[in-house]
Write a structure and sequence with these properties.
430 residues, mainly alpha, Growth Hormone, Chain: A, 2 domains, transmembrane
């Protein structure tokens, strides 16, 4: 999930385009890796901390609520530190979140784990605010979309491999271990098994924290150009002539914030819930721990399709309509089927979700003029939907069949996204 911003900049001659793109690629890769490993960690913590499904899904709430809390403050921090320093500090904050997992694992404290997730996402909120503008300014503006697409692919590749990397460590031989824990009646022996399982998370997150600190140091020492925030971006047309005096006088933006909320919600449901969905269908943990990768691969395919087709063959509005319709069809397919077929339909939701952010964001900030920055921040705050929708699913799943709970959560989201694609983005646009 990415957004762009416009700023004026004098790019130093020594700042290599290849170097800048390489650093941004690494940052987008890290964002994808840390975000999409949550699906595996939900299944891991469900066993290690002996949680119910609804309790385990608090991971998504603790993670994504940080976007809402730190969306606007992050822009204030960047104004004070500058963009390059902001990137470095953001990685340091994410590293602190990773290190919190060490005492969390040693004490098997779910509260500490949730704190770690919250701190990680606080760093990611700052990282998104600091890194996204570079996609627009490190080369010609007319080729910015191509650069954003390349960086988006880095993000999705990381999301696809992270469940395999972390899952192979923290959930190794998970089915046998889960069976052993369930059958153990001796409390002391069970505690030892759970403590040993919890300790598996320490090494990978310690290594990740060290990598983040090293990259933060290298970025701070790099020759990345700094953005000049003292000048406002040029505005033309309706963006200049608008007479509106408040951000709340742009209904299509407010509807867009809700659309982002719904989109990120269904995206996270498709990526993070797919493993729990498979477990509910009776599949083994050794199999379901990799399911998030299937959704991310489908998203990657959709991203590549978007690079080829938009805007040459289809418009942003049309791509959003198509994606929303596919979301409705694939969700219905998952509801009406079972086993591997149902999981395939959920994984295909990655394809349906892939082109939504690139379409919703520009439609929502169109012609905001001087309100563009705060409008963008409000849209980023809408990412909190990724934490809220799974909580609704968890609450429903405790009272009704899990397939019905999934259907009732996803269908309204896709219906609203379809509405925004067809009419919502035009409300109050003049």
């Amino acid at each position: 999930m990415t957004n762009t911003a416009s700023s004026s900049l004098a790019i130093p001659k020594q700042a290599s385009f290849v170097q800048s793109m390489s650093i941004l690629g690494i940052l987008y890769f890290l964002m994808g890796f840390i975000t999409w490993v949550n699906g595996t960690m939900i299944q891991f913590l469900k066993i290690a901390c002996e949680l119910s499904t609804s309790q385990a899904l608090l991971v998504t709430l603790a993670f994504f609520v940080a976007y809402f809390v730190f969306g606007l403050p992050a822009s204030v921090v960047i104004n004070k530190t500058g963009y390059k320093a902001g990137m470095a500090w953001s990685l340091a904050i994410v590293a602190i979140g990773c290190l919190i997992f060490i005492p969390a694992a040693n004490s098997r404290s779910y509260g500490l784990f949730l704190t770690g997730f919250f701190v990680q996402c606080a760093g990611l909120a700052l990282l998104q605010t600091a890194s996204n503008p570079y996609a627009s300014i490190i080369g010609p503006i007319e080729s910015a979309a191509k650069r954003i697409s390349i960086l988006g692919i880095c993000n999705k590749i990381a999301g696809a491999i992270s469940p395999y990397v972390i899952g192979s460590i923290v959930l190794k031989n998970a089915t046998a271990l889960e069976t052993q824990i369930d059958k153990t009646t001796d409390l002391a022996e069970k505690t030892v098994l759970l403590n040993n399982l919890a300790s598996r998370v320490i090494m990978p997150y310690l290594v990740l924290a060290i990598v983040l600190i090293i990259i933060a140091f290298l970025i701070n020492r790099s020759s990345l150009p700094e953005i000049d925030t003292t000048e406002e971006p040029a505005e033309t047309g309706a963006a200049v002539t608008t007479k509106r005096t408040s951000i709340f006088q742009f209904p299509y933006l407010l509807l867009g914030v809700l659309c982002i909320f719904m989109y990120v919600g269904v995206e996270v449901m498709a990526g993070d819930i797919i493993g729990i969905y498979g477990k509910s269908l009776g599949m083994s943990l050794d199999k379901t721990k990799y399911f998030t990768s299937f959704t991310l691969v489908a998203m990657l395919v959709g991203y590549v399709i978007g690079i080829v087709t938009i805007p040459k063959y289809i418009s942003q509005e049309k791509s959003l309509r198509i994606c929303a319709i596919l979301g409705l069809l694939f969700t219905t397919g998952a509801f009406l089927t079972t086993g591997n077929t149902a999981i395939t339909f959920i994984a295909l939701l990655g394809l349906a979700n892939s082109l939504m952010w690139p379409a919703i964001f520009p439609l929502a900030i169109s012609k905001l003029g001087r309100f563009t920055k705060i409008g963008s921040a409000m849209l980023v705050m809408g990412i909190v939907g990724g934490g809220v929708l799974p909580q609704i699913y968890g609450a429903l799943a405790n009272h009704i069949n899990f397939t019905h709970a999934f259907f009732y959560c996803m269908i309204p989201g896709y219906i609203y996204i379809l509405y925004y694609a067809m009419a919502g983005h035009k409300v109050g646009l003049r």
